[in-house]
Each structure stands twice: as C-alpha cells, then as structure tokens.
C-alpha cells in the first residue's frame, strides 16, 4: 500500500463567519505572531525587561514587517505588476495576496529598531529574545501552505510525498494524476522547530547574547531556504549566476548571521548585564511601568496589525507565491511563490 501525506479539502482554506471570510492561512499567520510575541516577551522579561515592552516593540515591528514582506514580493515578481498589460496599482492590493518572509525580516528589523528606541530596550537584546520565537512563528505559519495546497516541490516517490489534486491549476503539466511531491512546507516546519531547540541549547552552553542568538537564527533559517529552493518546481525569477532571487536572499541572511557572530563576539566578550540601553531602564528612569501601562498601547498596535493580516487573506497573490502562497477568490491556488 502506498503511503502519502493527503492535502486537506480546499473548503478548509477559508471559513465564512457571517459577511466575513476568514482565510486559514491568515489564521495560521496570526497564531504564529501571537506565539512569537508570547515567547519573546517571556524570554525578555526573564532577562530583566519590563512586562509589556515586547508588545510596544511589536506595535512597530509587525506592521512594518508586513510592508517589507510586500515590497520584497513585488521586487521579486516585478513582471506580475509592471509587465505588459499589468496594472501597477495592483502593488497596493495586498488583500489579493503576495508577501515574502525574507522581506518581512527586513521590514520587521526596521520596526523593531524604532520600537526599541522608544522603549529603551537594546535592539540586540530584543533580537536575541526573538530568535527562537521567529522560528516558532514561521513553523506555525507553514501550516497555512498545507491548507492552500501550495509550497510543494518536485515529484517524489518517498513515502511522505504530498498528494496534490491534478485539478490544481499549478499541477505540473505532463505528470500523471496521483503524482506525489516533496512537501516543502513540512520540511521547513520541522527544520524551524528543530532550530528552536538548537538555539535554546546553544544559549545554555555558550550564553549567546549581544545579537549572537539572532546570528544563529539567520544562519539556521537561511541555510534551509537555500536547500529548499533546490527542490522548487517554479522558483522566483533568476538573477546573477542563474540563481533565484530567494537563494541570494537566503545566502545574504547566512552571511549576515556569520558576520554578526564574529563581530559581536569580538566587540562584546563581556556578559550582558542589562537588556536596556544605558540610562533607559525603568529603574534608572525612576519609574517601574506596570504591565497595563506598557501593554495597552503595545497590545492595541499588535492586534491592529494582526487584523490587517487577517483582512488581507492569504499572503501570496494567485500565481505568485513566495514560500508562502495565495488563494484567489475562486479557490484556485498557486504554489510557485515562496517566502
């Protein structure tokens, strides 16, 4: 008997609640954001951060991460927006899908920098607390690809091959119905969960602070993306040396992670004594904010940003998915993009 991973019925890709349509992919993203916020807050608080500080930072990091994800997607799918017969205004139609994880890292970093400046938390301290939480969020978000019948790779005969209906508009031409495919979403999900454990264990062994834990995150995640791109059926458009844009982005993440480890180890051999910039901790400012004082503003901003994701629906526009993907209003899907 042949074994395989079945794909859920496409009716599970969205849920109708009165006049609203909730996309399962968006719900997975929101669950990932919530899990990452909780874990980062717990880790930063254990290191001396004020309760609610992470929510205040997330108020900036989450929405700018979404903007960065959209910009990256558009730049790597330029012809879908600015080619012949295309409407450039579609760049603004984020509700039609189309975002990329690598872009969210850039936009989220800008937002985190702003949030840390406002709260007084060191950016590197926040990044270290966030490192395993990012992998947890990305693992949860990958479940959305499964519901959308997307993010699968080349055909395979392995027992864990993914079943994709031949009626899927993106089913490769020339292959017989019943062909199984590499479940790239599952590969990344498992890799990310393993990465959470790896970072936590390395922290206990080497006391990774001053940005070093985040450096490990970039190396871990970037390495996986390089590997996963080799299994893609339709990678994003190629760039110099014939490599897809996502491969270059992943290689850049790995190189940046190595640079952070080397530079920060030389600059800060001393242990981290505070997650706050000098003179910016609550105690030094003469007041200890309560969770409500910090949390109300942060919570509101995070919920607002999360709501924007939910309203936008799947993060990839039909026919152009990054390592995330999208479902059009008719229910057709495309696995070719990948964040």
From TrEMBL:
Keywords annotated in UniProt: Cell membrane, Lipoprotein, Membrane, Transferase, Transmembrane, Transmembrane helix
Transmembrane segments: 20-41, 53-72, 92-116, 123-141, 184-202, 214-233, 245-263
Biased composition (Low complexity): 302-313
A GO CC term assigned to this protein in UniProt: plasma membrane
Pathway(s) this gene product operates in, as recorded in its UniProt entry: Protein modification; lipoprotein biosynthesis (diacylglyceryl transfer)
Enzyme class label: transferase
Subcellular localization: Cell membrane
EC number: 2.5.1.145
Chain intervals for the UniProt region annotation (Disordered): 270-339
Predominant localisation class: membrane
One Gene Ontology term of the molecular function aspect: phosphatidylglycerol-prolipoprotein diacylglyceryl transferase activity
Mode of membrane association: Multi-pass membrane protein
Family of this protein: Belongs to the Lgt family.
Protein role: Catalyzes the transfer of the diacylglyceryl group from phosphatidylglycerol to the sulfhydryl group of the N-terminal cysteine of a prolipoprotein, the first step in the formation of mature lipoproteins.
This protein's name: Phosphatidylglycerol--prolipoprotein diacylglyceryl transferase
